[in-house]
Amino acid sequence: MSSDATTAIPTLPFAEAAGAAPEAEAPLRGLGASLPQADARAKAEGTFPYASDLWAEGLLWAALLRSPHAHARIVSVDTSAAEAMPGVRAVVTAADVPGAATYGRRVADRPVFADGLVRHHGEAIAAVAADHPDTARLATAAILVEYELLEPVTDPEKAFEAEPLHPDGNLVRHIPLSFGDPDATGEVVVEGLYRVGRQDPAPIGAEAGLAVPRPDGGVELYTASTDPHTDRDLAAACFGLAPDQVKIVVTGVPGATGDREDPGFQIPLGLLALRTGCPVKLTATREESFLGHAHRHPTLLRYRHHADAEGRLVKVEAQILLDAGAYADSSSESLAAAVAFACGPYVVPHAFVEGWAVRTNNPPSGHVRGEGAMQVCAAYEAQMDKLAGRIGIDPAELRLRNVMSTGDLLPTGQTVTCPAPVAELLAAVRDFPLPALPKDTPEEDWLLPGGPEGAGEPGAVRRGVGYALGMVHMLGAEGTDEVSTATVRVLDGVATVICSAVDTGSGFSTLARQIVQETLGVEEVHVAPVDTDQPPAGAATHGRHTWVSGGAVERAAKMVRTQLLQPLAHKFGMSTELLQISDGRITSYDGVLSTTVAEEMNGKELWATAQCRPHPTEPLDASGQGDAFVGLAFCAIRAVVDVDIELGSVRVVEMAVAQDVGRILNPAQLATRIEAGVTQGVGAALTENLRTARGLVRHPDLTGYALPTSLDAPDIRIVKLVEERDVVAPFGAKAASAVPVVTSPAAVAAAVRAATGRPVNRLPIRPQAAVAATP
After folding, report:
1. What are phi and psi of 91, to 5 degrees?
2. Which of 138, 79, 146, 96 is nearest to 118 (CA)?
3. Preceding peptide of 614 cis, ω within 30°
4. Shortest CA distance to 148 belongs to which of 93, 95, 71, 79?
5. Cα 461–Cα 717–Cα 403 angle in degrees, nearest 5
6. Dist. CA 660–CA 674, nearest whole Å
7. 387 pLDDT tier (thresholds 50, 70, 90)
8. Any idea what the Cα angle at residue 336 is, between residues 316 and 160, rounded to 5°?
9. For the segment 226-249, what is each residue's pLDDT rounded down to a tens digit?
10. N or C: which end of the chain has fewer CB within 10 A?
């Protein structure tokens, strides 16, 4: 691709670092402008109203009783003492659920309250509503539950032979992918066993909600839901109500890197409001969040790579085992991504991959950025490093000999029809200048591994450089019906966008403003609050709102544009295609007509509603074949680390990132998304692991679970953004935040391998794995 496909974002520090030529002045509005998010200032100043700030007249407070055991039979539940406490207004258990007893966004296998059997630590047993939060918590402690402890199944490998933990059995899904000739072999063979730990999405901001009963017998739920229509339907089924009797109002969303809110607390909240006839509020503690919501799947991976003497891949064999925890949730979709991307963005003539997702008595697993793809990336990139070492060639060169491009096949048999500039991305990070070595800088400016007060000695520090290539799919997969609806209304020169797409930090609300500004030339654009009275827009995952909801907004705005321009076109005897809107003015191709949008909008109300639905996909068949994905995004990262080879402490010095983004819609926002994704990946590589002992979560708080801080975040150099538009996507843009999360842990591990000579086959990297190998 030509050099003009590389965009340096203006006013941001990485433009100079990348050696990019200065650009023309950035636009002030519309697509391509660095518009700030509407709620950015309020969140920065601490005035943003989060869901935990909600209030209502006559408010009651809720609390949940959760199981202290990972696996137990419930012999009895006695709520009499709790019900007799002054101030307690209601206590509900499994026997009080009027509708469906189980729920699930993908598979309805999770009980609202444990009924007869506890399957994971922290599973809800009962809920209480009281006139004070302390009273509610004391009442949960007064509920007497008699348990018969059972042996927990915590090793996913043992789940195959264990007694069924669930009526649906222990196997959630099995995918045996077969592609090519099983008898093919290579001259060089490398094998590896890899493990990826349990990463928590750790949403900053309490999971909270308010339920308000309605006069018609229904209920309204005010929560930070990321998929309000699905949550409404789940809740309505459990309440025994019609969907139109339940309304979810999305409020106070602080951000999300997965499923933001656990429906497991929204449903008890609504049940209490319906039982008491009063508004009920619940704010989950951090411990409850760690115990209740979904985490990244812990994964066991076995790999065997075959290559010829020059390092070109011949065959990949893999076994992938995902620990789904107690319930299925999104494990089927995560497994499909893991199996499909098990070979990475490389050309592999023959691939044989078996994947399983199994139930255990561990905490529930579900959707977290890059699910499935992140785990396999750590494994296949470790294999590529092994292969390079065995053959004796540079790891970057080995990758360049094998990278895929547009027109190649995935192991699922699907042709890569979208832009896939993988070689260009890898070359960009390989050729980017390395950071200075500590000996070239003043010693006081050198941050030792372990932080400013690190106990190590400078002489024990070794520097390593590692590479990784990652890929993710965009939108849903395997036949998911992706559709979104949006309405654009203009009145008195002010535009309003109505769309139930939840902005979890992806910037959709800002994008919607930019689309309308560019299409209609209207300066003032508002995005209406989200609730389920609006048509559905789907979940806020896989970058789908940029594509699907953004596409719906664009189509609606273009329909309004036609309404605006038709009278003028008719008056001057020309088609609307000969008129253009730019900088708030309407002009004709020949310059005869020139007026302002404000003049033509004066006194008019124009509106239109439109849908966007990408082309359909299909489920993987019995051999793992099928066109399961709408689009793909790719990323290359070069990590530079300093490792204290005596203590095993690691400091990530720099992450050089090159990514194909399709089209840059908001430069500043794009850079933020990439930087955030890289930082989340660094956490997965070095610190984040929700540890369990016999199924019990250890230290479920932000002291025991180590998120990367500003001191842990490396210098992130965005050295190249390839703008090669995907023709099937609105605006040609690609999802931005998931693929750096997928790629960065593998790059950090590769750099630690280079520094220490050790295999590094587990994430997060343990200190003992970063101690240099004995010569």
Report:
1. -135, 130
2. 146
3. no
4. 71
5. 95
6. 11
7. very high
8. 85
9. 889 999 999 999 999 999 999 999
10. C
Q: Which distant-in-sequence residues (6+ apart) come within 8 Å of 519 by Cβ?
A: 554, 557, 558, 560, 561, 581
Taking the whole predicted model, whether its pTM rises above 0.85 is answered as yes
Listed residue (61, 364, 311) closest to 186, CA to CA: 311
Which residues have C-beta within 8 Å of that of residue 315, sequence separation ≥ 6?
Answer: 180, 184, 185, 186, 305, 306, 348, 349, 350, 351, 352
Residues near 75 by beta carbon (within 8 Å), at least 6 away in sequence:
146, 147, 148
Q: Which two tokens stand for residue 422?
A: 């993988």
Cβ(218)–Cβ(191) below 8 Å: no
CB 61 within 8 A of CB 130: yes
- Using CA atoms, how far apart are residues 579 and 586, in angstroms rounded to an integer? 7
Phi, then psi, of 656 in degrees rounded to 5 = -95, 125
Q: Which SS3 state, helix, strand or coil, does residue 240 take?
A: coil
Q: How far is CA 543 from CA 168, 548, 725, 729, in A?
A: 32, 9, 15, 12
- Crossing angle of helices 373-391 and 738-756, in 10° steps, is 30
pLDDT digits 0-9 by tens, 423-458: 999 999 999 999 988 776 665 566 778 766 666 778
Q: Give kind and range of the element (H or E) at residue 562.
A: helix 550-572
Distance CA 510, CA 520 (A): 15
CB 593, CB 572: distance < 8 Å: yes
Of the candidates 77, 66, 456, the one whose C-alpha atom is nearest the C-alpha of residue 262 is 66
- For residues 505, 506, 509, 512, the Cα torsion angle rounded to the nearest 10 degrees is 170
Q: How far apart are CA 695 and CA 753, in angstroms?
A: 31
Q: What does the CA dihedral 593, 597, 602, 606 come to, rounded to 10 degrees?
A: 110
Q: Tell me if 238 sits within 8 A of 269, measured CB to CB.
A: no
Under DSSP, is residue 477 helix (H, G, I), strand (E, B) or coil?
A: strand
CB 108 within 8 A of CB 102: yes
